């Protein structure tokens, strides 16, 4: 979050594009909407939109990518403070709460539904998630608190965090709108995790 | 595994197609190989190949899909016998060991490398995995041993199993060829899982 006026104006603009796109996708369906339609709705030229987003798929994935950046920044600040998975979950709930405050929980939900509805976008979202997991693992590996012999553990924690994210999103989407935030579902899933993981032989000995 | 002669002949044919395709992809790169080339290498008509596989992407994903079917069958046989995640891991290591015996560990590895190399195929493999997790969850939900109040737990176990699979594949691919099987990596990842999951408040109280 840069505080400069110029940056804030750019962020506001991005957000207006995303909101307009979500409205239009809801009204007409993703495939029926073009970048020119998004531009028209907010009185900008379509070249302006293209300066921010390479395609309408990218407009739809805009909030996901932004939320994930905020998440990585927060992980970076907290690394070494506790168990990795807890660090990830805390960073994500904070990033989500901030995003939700800024754009509204409803926008996040509508975006998530649109992504699921269009297979090509869903495939891109899955590739983006896989890429994020790689970046998250590299971030942790480079941190002085994690010695090379812990690299396998790091990757496993990253994958399990991916599992927590997927399940939190599933529960949040299947709950009626307005009932609990995505951040709350993250917390609930984290709390339920030990029950599905068989305890280690050492732990039960 | 149907025991009929006709079925075995079909299975053998499928396997010859997959092996020939893997060889050709290795030699020339995925994008340079057509279904006609696969057909030529094994002296079949390309129409025969199309009867088994809708596209060359499907030939490449053939072993993945087959392995996952065998996995689901084994899960179905074992449900209710122990913790879900253990059931999944046991079913998967068995299915992998059988597949590896039939086609060779090396073929599985080459396939996996090819899938990673081509983004469109990788996206399809990710969609297939997401679909498999849905089918796995439905399979468990329909089983009498799992009451509706356990549905959240089931979905979480399925997602964590997806994490275990991804990490087992990563480790196996980064190990030098010939060093340990994918099934062995599954076991190792399962054994390391408790260390990355923070213990529940109840368990530590």
What does this structure look like?
The structure is a homodimer of 205-residue chains. With 205 residues, the first copy, chain A, is mainly alpha-helical. Chain A has two domains: 1-55, Homeodomain-like (Arc Repressor Mutant, subunit A, Orthogonal Bundle), CATH 1.10.10; 61-193. Chain A has helices spanning 5-28, 35-41, 46-52, 56-78, 84-103, 105-117, 119-142, 151-174, 182-196, 201-204. In chain A, helix 4 (56-78) crosses helix 6 (105-117), helix 4 (56-78) runs parallel beside helix 7 and helix 8 crosses helix 9 (182-196). The A-B interface holds A 83-86, 119, 122-124, 126-127, 130, 152-153, 155-157, 159-160, 162-164, 166-167, 170-171, 189, 191-200, 203 and B 83-86, 119, 122-124, 126-127, 130, 152-153, 155-157, 159-160, 162-164, 166-167, 170-171, 189, 191-200, 203.
């Amino acid at each position: 979050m840069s505080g400069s006026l110029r940056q804030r104006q750019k962020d506001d603009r991005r957000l207006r594009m995303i909101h307009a796109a979500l409205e239009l996708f809801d009204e007409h369906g993703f495939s029926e909407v073009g970048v020119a339609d998004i531009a028209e709705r907010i009185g900008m030229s379509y070249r302006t939109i293209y300066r921010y987003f390479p395609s309408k798929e990218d407009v739809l994935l805009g909030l996901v990518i932004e939320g994930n950046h905020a998440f990585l920044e927060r992980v970076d600040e907290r690394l070494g403070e506790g168990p990795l998975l807890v660090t990830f979950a805390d960073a994500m709930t904070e990033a989500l709460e901030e995003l939700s405050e800024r754009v509204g929980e409803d926008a996040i939900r509508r975006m998530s539904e649109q992504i699921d509805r269009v297979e090509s976008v869903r495939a891109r979202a899955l590739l983006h998630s896989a890429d994020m997991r790689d970046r998250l693992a590299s971030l942790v590996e480079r941190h002085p608190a994690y010695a090379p012999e812990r690299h396998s553990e790091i990757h496993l924690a990253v994958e399990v965090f991916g599992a927590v994210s997927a399940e939190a999103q599933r529960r949040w989407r299947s709950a009626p709108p307005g009932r609990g935030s995505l951040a709350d579902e993250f917390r609930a899933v984290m709390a339920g995790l030990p029950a599905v993981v068989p305890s280690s032989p050492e732990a039960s000995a």
